[in-house]
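hey m, so remember when u said the tokens were messed up on ur end? i reran from scratch. heres the input so u can diff it against urs
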Amino acid sequence: MYPSSSKYWREYTKKSNVYIVLSLILASYFLAYFHRTMSGILKPEITAIAIKNGWDPVKLLSIFSGTYFYTYALAQLIVGPIVDSLGVRRAGFIFLLVMTFGTLMMSVDDAWVLVIGRLLVGFAASVAYLSFHRASSYYYPKESQGLLTAVAIVAGNAGSLASTYPLRLMLLKVGMKSTMIFFAAITLLIAIMLFRTDTRDSRGTFKTNLKTTMNGIKHVLRDTHIYGIGVSGIITYAMVVSFQSSWDV
């Protein structure tokens, strides 16, 4: 149990500068959504890269769109335990560095490098939402979690909006290479700022936390009521993300 009602807790929260921590995590969640839904807008650039490298443009665009979600989904099994064992500061820093490197790879006019960069970005992006809930649950009571979740969703969807016409304008102005380098620099800046915050929210070892996560998943899977809600949730969310990822201007 965290000493949420104690004087120590109030002093610790003040020292940690929780608003800066949560703002930086929300900024990373903004970038996660930005990357998630940019594929439709990048269609002309990806088509040009495909033709240059002898790929089928439709095939490359499909792979580019899907690889983010494959690694994002697989990462869910281990990112939670990593955030718990390392803490938001260190885990966020490491994953944002991976996102920075992946974004830089997406600035290269090579199909394979583009796909690998997208894989790295998808894997790294998974840390944002989990870190936000980890930090919010650490600093705020459960009564505030619904509002904080809404704030996170707003920040994420702002990233989706930024990846539409604003992104297209930037691409037309400076090109894909400079655009990806710019966002890589922004990601690196967020990583460094997060690493410099004073948070001490790590607990347990990765092995212990992974075991706890797996036991939690087993417990949920044994509850038959979850399947109907889970399937409908997956279908609904898949349709929303599919529509967002197909935006073109």
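this time it looks ok to me. Residues 57-105 form the longest helix (49 residues). if urs says something different then somethings off w ur setup not the seq
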